[in-house]
Design a protein that fits this description.
Layout: H1 2-12, H2 18-28, E1 33-35, H3 37-50, E2 55-60, H4 72-83, E3 87-92, H5 114-128, E4 137-141, H6 143-146, H7 150-158, H8 163-166, H9 170-178, H10 184-200, E5 204-208, H11 212-224, E6 231-235, H12 261-269, H13 273-283, H14 288-299, H15 304-319, H16 322-336, E7 345-350, E8 354-355, H17 356-362, H18 369-377, E9 381-383, E10 386-387, E11 394-395, E12 398-404, E13 408-415
Parallel strand pairs: 2-3, 2-5, 3-4, 5-6, 7-13
Antiparallel strand pairs: 1-6, 8-11, 9-10, 9-12, 12-13
Length: 416
């Protein structure tokens, strides 16, 4: 008894060196929650003392292969931990994908087929590798240990958690109270995700704020299996270009990580000066000190646009190249002066003479003729650089550059 108590005290009182404190500050940067911070500080101290890296896990079901910058918030944190020397485990939930994660849902999500899982997993990791160092990333599939469990092992695992504790989960509670069906297999998802932490002997697991319950289950299961419980780090959701809603393709406020460099650069330059610092905090690889200095420079009179350009260059360089960032900046400056970019899409349209509103819709530059008319009223439509104010304009057969707003261009060949 005394030996155990002494061991616990030794672990609890490891001194936190300057290097450990710096690593803790980097880990905490931009996070929503770190549970339990004192435990994680001790894990860092023990890692420094023994030279053994921490095992850091991120589990992802391969259900959304097209990533945007919002998805990279968690991946960026993994990269920071890699840079601190820790072992990152990119866990592809090929087994749990066949169950379907009920997090934040009020209906059962249909499971994916094996073919969908494999296709998405390949695409997901290829895109994630634009952020992670693939040479320092351990790739695992949870079917490695989940498939061998079999029926007996699954029942034994299920015996380690109660229905009452499972119903503490907010989305389950809401669905139960509203009479919305909850399938028994959905209870298995947090159990299997928790078992992943046992199988991998995870020291730290990352996830979005909506994953907190699942991450806590892993912590409890590790205790039950006699392991030191993992710490939990949740990351916030990144706001989109509107600065209000979370970044989402469905809300069209996103920046895709495989979009062209010019498009990424232009979108990043469109965010507000206030939101720029949020993006720096969650997306930039600059040090906390560098960002603080940059913010101080802006407060002292530096043009916020220059700081935003630096951020846009960093992001475009990360997902493309330094040359692409240089080209994107040149393109942005050219557009700001009213110039026409080099990469203008070519569109052929027939039906001349054709009304400007219909033409804008047919070229895809406006979603509807009403939107086209609104853009004309706002002075946002140009033909070969000249602003168009006549909504009744009809264009004859010819070739010209059509522009809507600052970023939408098309070289149109209009025929009869």
């Amino acid at each position: 008894m005394n030996v155990s108590a002494n061991s616990a005290n030794e672990k609890a009182t490891l001194p936190l060196s300057e290097k450990v404190q710096e690593a803790l500050a980097i880990t905490k940067r931009g996070v929503d929650e770190l549970l339990i911070e004192s435990e994680f500080a001790q894990k860092l101290a023990r890692s420094e003392k023994t030279g053994k890296p921490l095992r850091v896990k991120l589990g992802l079901d391969p259900t959304a292969p097209d990533l945007h910058l919002g998805h990279t918030v968690v991946l960026n944190k993994l990269r920071q931990l890699q840079n601190l020397g820790h072992q990152v485990i990119f866990l592809i939930g090929d087994f749990t994908s066949m169950i379907g994660d009920p997090s934040g849902r009020n209906v059962t999500r249909p499971p994916l087929t094996r073919e969908q899982i494999e296709t998405n997993a390949m695409t997901y990791f290829r895109q994630a590798s634009l952020v992670l160092d693939p040479e320092r990333t351990e790739i695992r599939y949870n079917s490695e240990w989940s498939d061998p469990l079999g029926a007996r092992g699954m029942i034994q695992l299920a015996s380690r958690y109660t229905v009452a504790r499972m119903m503490e989960r907010d989305d389950f509670t809401k669905r139960y109270k509203s009479g919305t069906p909850i399938s028994v297999h959905e209870f298995l998802y947090p159990l299997m995700q928790g078992y992943d932490s046992v199988a991998l002997e995870s020291d730290l697991e990352l996830g979005g704020t909506d994953q907190k319950f699942n991450l806590l289950v892993g912590r409890e299961l590790q205790k039950d299996y006699g392991q030191e419980p993992q710490c939990i780090l949740t990351m916030p959701l990144l706001e989109g270009l509107d600065g209000v809603e979370k970044m989402s393709k469905s809300k069209n406020n996103y920046i895709g990580i495989t979009e062209p460099g010019n498009t990424m650069f232009g979108k990043l330059m469109s965010i507000s000066d206030v939101m720029m610092w949020r993006y720096y905090e969650l997306l930039s690889f600059r040090s906390i000190g560098d960002i603080a200095q940059l913010k101080a420079d802006v407060e002292a009179g530096m043009n916020p646009r220059d700081a935003k350009v630096a951020l846009a260059r960093e992001i475009v360089t990360r997902f493309h190249s330094a040359q692409a960032a240089d080209d994107a900046l040149a393109d942005f400056v050219n557009r700001a002066k009213g110039g026409i970019p080099d990469d203008v899409q070519e569109v052929a349209v027939s039906g001349a003479p054709l009304g400007i509103g219909v033409l804008l819709k047919q070229t895809g530059l406006c979603a509807s003729t009403s939107e086209a008319n609104r853009m004309i009223d706002q002075g946002g439509v140009r033909i070969d650089g000249a602003v168009i104010s006549d909504k009744g304009l009809k264009l004859e057969a010819s070739t010209f550059v059509l522009q809507v707003g600052k970023r939408k261009f098309a070289r149109v060949t209009l025929s009869a």
